[in-house]
Design a protein that fits this description.
By secondary structure, the protein is an alpha+beta fold. It contains 34 helices and 31 strands. It folds into four domains: 196 residues, Alpha-Beta Complex (tt1808, chain A); 161 residues; 242 residues, 3-Layer(aba) Sandwich (Rossmann fold), CATH 3.40.50; 219 residues, DNA methylase specificity domains (Adenine-n6-DNA-methyltransferase TaqI, Chain A, domain 2, Alpha-Beta Complex), CATH 3.90.220.
Length: 940
Amino acid sequence: MIQSFKIVQQLVANFKANEAAYLASNYSESQVRQDFIDKFFTALGWDVTHSKQFNPYEQEVKIENRVTMPGTQRRADYAFFIMPNYRDVKFFTEAKKPSRNLSNADDYYQAIRYAWNANTPIAVLTDFEEFHILDCRYKPDIKDSLSRKLKQFHYSQYADEEKFKEIFFLFGREAVANGSLEKFAADLPKPRGKAIQGGLFKGGYKSVDEAFLEQLDEYRNTLAKAFKKENQELGGEELTEAVQRTIDRLVFIRFLEDKGIEEPQIIGLHENKSAWNSFLAICKRFEPKYNGLIFKPHRILDGNNFNPPDDRDFADICGELADPTSPYDFDKIPISILGSIYERFLGKVVHATDKRVKVEEKPEVRKAGGVYYTPEYIVRYIVKETVGKLIVGKTPEEIEKMSFADIACGSGSFLIEVYSELLEYHDRWYNANPARIEKDDVFERDSQLHLSLKKKKEILINNVYGVDIDFQATEVTQLSLYLKLLENVSMNETHQMGLFKETILPNLNGNIVCGNSLIGTDIGGLFESDETHKLKAMDYEDVFPKIMKRGGFDVVVGNPPYGAELSIAEQDYLSKYNLSTKKTKESYSAFVVKGIKLLKQSGRLSYIIPSAWTGAVDFIDFRKHLLKNRIAKIILLPFDIFKDAYIDTLLLFMNKNQEYANQKVKTYVYGKKEKLIDIELGENDFNLVDQILWIESNTNKFVFEEKSIKLIQKLYQQNQKLGDFIDMKRGVLLDKGIVEVKQISNNYYQYFTGDIYRYVVNIAFGGWVPFSDKLKERPKEIKWFVGERILLRRLVNRQRRMMANIVNSTFITNKNLYSILPKSNEVNLKIILGILNSKIISYLYLSQVTQATKDDFPQVTIKDVLTLPIPRINSIQQSGLIKLVEQLCEIRQKISIAKTDGEINRFELLSASLDHKIDDAVYEMYRLNEEEIKIVEGSL
């Protein structure tokens, strides 16, 4: 910092020496940038002049030349990044000439708008004379923009070491690389009290995606009602499609404006005699130029029988959306963010009756509790590790013959990233191999080579493919890919294509297809024709004939649907083609199997999917299918990957039918509560597991430690199943409305509200309930709630131990407790209790359930418990274990009624000793040696 401070002190001295000249109106912005601002940020450690970072695609500071259009500027002056991520801006700096008063609403609004649209919380506005730090977390509003100032420095303060430290340790390159801006923003208070009451921050603390989604929802609601009012014959599906296409056109036009590809179009629509007719005229004019789906004549919107909506409604939307009035800057909003907005937008549809219109969540979305889009860093990691690594070292000619797909593409987030990866690779390749450039592949701009629009279209058509069952999703995917195609295109380039009468956008109907990836057309015999139509059955051989003749896709990536409801007929169909089994009704597993099937030999698949399949009993056939291929890598993720959704997920990377002998699978487990903003794992971070161990184990469970796999395999081979000796049932799901304070009849039983711990029962009752159909779910026989039985808690404790005890009185238990009964009189429940409460059983269970590797309180499932191995016990071992269990139960009971701390301490010590002896006895029954016992002990 000392050297940086000296450089800045000299800059301050230089400015002060000629202050009058620098504050004169004829001293321009470009001059102050060159003379002072560039040097200031260079002193902070940034390579502003690119004296070290020569590669134009790997430069941490991007400097924009002034580009203006009517009413607005299109680029911030400086954008700062941290390698190797050259996409996500860390902060923007907007420069002005010193004669200008920085504290004005327009300049503040401009800087805030840049940053907020790029999801960047902090921006800088400076003329060197002053340095203003702005809060960009809130939706831009020019009326309150001046209140967004966080700190302000005068240039004289730069020479004060303490003041300079504030700037250096916030905006210095190394500080930013270490997360200084994120930490600073996280510590900023949210507005409250008078600031909110006075109307400040009326946009609210919303990220650009949340705010724009809210805006789109309002537009959809307004347009749906306006369309229906004038066109009563339109049903929900027609309205959904018409509204979607209208919004897509508006968004696309705004994108063209903000990217500088077209002159502003929407800005004046609300002033025209008919905003709607003017809008249609723009669309008609753009259709031959841009082709593609967006402006293609729509049978409803562009039909002769469609009555326009109330012009005031549509004009208001145009006025709000028009630049520069709108807070949204489509030059700054990343295409991936638009994709995430649309992903959630697609979760709702227009529902129409004769009298009313209502926008509702789709049934499957409502059931799932919302739409959970994949975080961008997950998408990037999956694509980088599959597409990115596969194309390394290949020429454009070799890549041209490759195909990459998402067979449940949704709004297209994975396909946007695939396309981005391909574009960036081609850009780098051509700049590194200028002698091998083919005509029209690239052009030169700003002393570097860029892909031509023609080449970008070829890459999109040749390499990117997607399928989704929702037509609106495929439309949005096409829209997103078009936006990505045009991201860095200039108005001059599109004008040149227009001169040669070339359409700017390619037809993607052969690449992005609406259909059912799981169901083929041969399902027809199982359904009526209407049902077959609703299923949208399709055959890949018909839809993508060239790709399937080449053997299939090179890569399949994505986030397939979880928990989708499949009819019996669909399940039968999937089972017939080995896409799933009757036991495995989860849709994601069928998508994994289908994805593998669609790959060419050695093709790569990577999905983010739930992790339950790695150890659940019902997924054994699925695991066997996967293990016929080469598993490359598995990463277990934290629980908060999806906002507002508690889903245990993992990343799966695999290669189709590739030799897996001696294959060491890379595995990594993130902590449950670990907060991820990126995945940055090096080769040394992974644990390695020999795939053959999973193949040779009797359950094929994906246990992530080799030493545990070998021990588990030994235990399962030598012993019987617990399910051979006991039966289990879960307690009831209870409607509290049926609970009575007293016994009404003999059919009423006390309802247990106490707790079960290891060898302890805390008795408590919450009234009386009938053993009848009034219980939502219940065992059919009362035997599960009477007589001697074991109660096992569904959750393990903080020490990661199962908790069970024997009870003998009659009462109804809830869904959080399992009742265990012996299958015969020969089974002694005390032996079962001692084994269930032992360390080895908890170890066996938790090491085979992926959720348990991260969860503080893993759930115990009946199927998994019944498959646990139980040892063959001789009579001496039985009597010894029974005696120890009886003694421990007695001691635990004495602890509960002890009157002094001394008594409790004495009984606790005795209890711990007996517990240890039970563990030793159970180890002996399972015939564990010292090394194996250490494995068990070390895992708890």
